[in-house]
Specification:
94 residues; mainly beta; 6-stranded antiparallel sheet
């Protein structure tokens, strides 16, 4: 995946691009595991690289919860990231 970000609150790293490469394995209809490589490329400063992995549970076909742990691979990345999330999809919006 290829994503561009604009962060208004951080003038030194205001605009950056993030690339990810994800491998995912589903277990049944509701559970999944993933591992991904993340590259953050800022206009100011060098790139940051992370390895991110986690698991998720699909509550319904339109909702899921997940958690992840990321480890920084170089000095420009955070040492680690812990996260938990809730996602939902709205079908038929457009």
């Amino acid at each position: 995946m290829f994503t561009n970000f604009l962060v208004a609150g951080d003038p030194n790293r205001q605009f950056f691009t993030e690339t990810t490469f994800v491998l995912e394995r589903e277990f049944g209809e509701r559970y999944f595991l993933f591992v991904e490589f993340v590259g953050d490329y800022h206009l100011n400063g060098g790139p940051g690289y992370l390895i991110n992995s986690g698991a998720g549970f699909r509550i319904t076909p339109e909702q899921q919860i997940d958690f992840h742990v990321a480890l920084g691979l170089n000095e420009n990345a955070p040492a680690y990231i812990l996260g938990i999330g809730y996602s939902f999809r709205i079908d038929g919006l457009f």
